[in-house]
Amino acid sequence: MYRWWKKDIPEVKVKKAKSILHNFSTAELNENGLAINPYVGCQHRCLYCYATYEWVPDFYDEIYAKFNADKVLINELPIYGSKIPVLIGSATDSYQPVELRFRLTRKVIEILQRYGVPYYIFTKSTAVLRDLDLHKRYKDKCYIVWSLTTIDENVKRKIEPFAASAEKIFDAMKRMREADIICGLNVDPIMPGINDDKNMISMLIKKAKQANCSFISSGVLRLRDDIWERIKRFLISEKRESLIRTYEHLYFKEGKKIGYYYFPNERYSKDIIGFIEEECMKNGIPYGLPFIDIEIRSCYMESQRKLIEYA
Ligand code: SF4
Predict the structure, then answer these.
(1) Predicted confidence band at 28 (pLDDT cuts at 50, 70, 90)?
(2) Sign of the C-alpha dihedral computed for residues 163, 31, 15 and 127 taken in this order
(3) Where exactly are the structural domains of the chain?
(4) How far is ligand 1, taken at its centre, from the CA of residue 51, in Å?
(5) Ligand 1 pocket: which of 44, 61, 195 to mutate (most atoms <8 Å of CB)?
(6) Atom of ligand 1 nearest to the CA of 42
């Protein structure tokens, strides 16, 4: 079996951060804002990870904990003010296992709360439950998103081998929702021929409904040269070479390139994303991330209103 990491267990090191609040923007996705990443590297080791840039060559094998993250944040917050929502975990999973030891994510959240800054978290972990009380007391100004690519555990174990199972994620979501914390799912990335089975997606959305999911967003896999290299080697080791030709066709022949990323044929993207949107509507789940604004909860209410209009 092909492994895209080198060490059986990632090595954990500490490092001193010079800055912690970063501007992030993805022109192709029309998103921008502020982000905090208390760690460099990620123990979840997802095959398709977008954060494996060339300047972090040991992304899957060496985890750096920015031990002074909270102190740096206190110094930087006055520069940006408290009105811009902060994404926690744009280039790492802030609730990966190492967080249970260092508690850096918790510390930065406590500071954001103290300064009244809205935040939202993307994770594939259930360790976020440790901080349920913390998020609960701030529930009007934060939301949590679990990235969940599939409920097929055979596929999941292959493409994101150390992330939480779908079942555990749904259990965590239920508990967070019982505490009235806004929680969504990001079904992303959809990978052609790997996790794009519509029946499976349909079941995932039904389970999300049962877990009282607040909203669902989704996205189709983008390819970068290094990501494609990993996926290609993975497909060869899975003896699915014919899928390589499908990807070449969808992405390199019929798709388009924006910046470093290849996007697939638009017809494919529209079909699968349209399907997810439709399934969300059928199940009464708002589709799309809440608008990023200072009052996250009022934006969430707005997306619910749109759903009622749709019905
Ligand atoms: S959880 Fe996110 S940051 Fe971590 S390996 Fe997976 S995709 Fe990358």
Answers:
(1) very low
(2) negative
(3) 11-310
(4) 7
(5) 44
(6) 4
Kindly report the CATH class assigned to 11-310. Answer: alpha beta
User: What separation in Å is there between the alpha carbon of 308 and the centre of ligand 1?
Assistant: 34
Q: Which two tokens stand for residue 47?
A: 């095959």
Ligand 1 centroid distance, CA of 42 (Å) = 6
Q: Is 42 in the pocket of ligand 1 (CB under 6 A)?
A: yes
Q: Kindly report the protein residue whose alpha carbon is nearest to atom 3 of ligand 1.
A: 92
Please tell me if the CB atom of residue 207 comes closer than 6 angstroms to any atom of ligand 1: no
Q: What is the pLDDT of residues 277-304, one digit of tens each?
A: 999 999 999 999 886 554 566 655 565 5
Least confident of 116-120, 158-162, 165-169, 295-299: 295-299
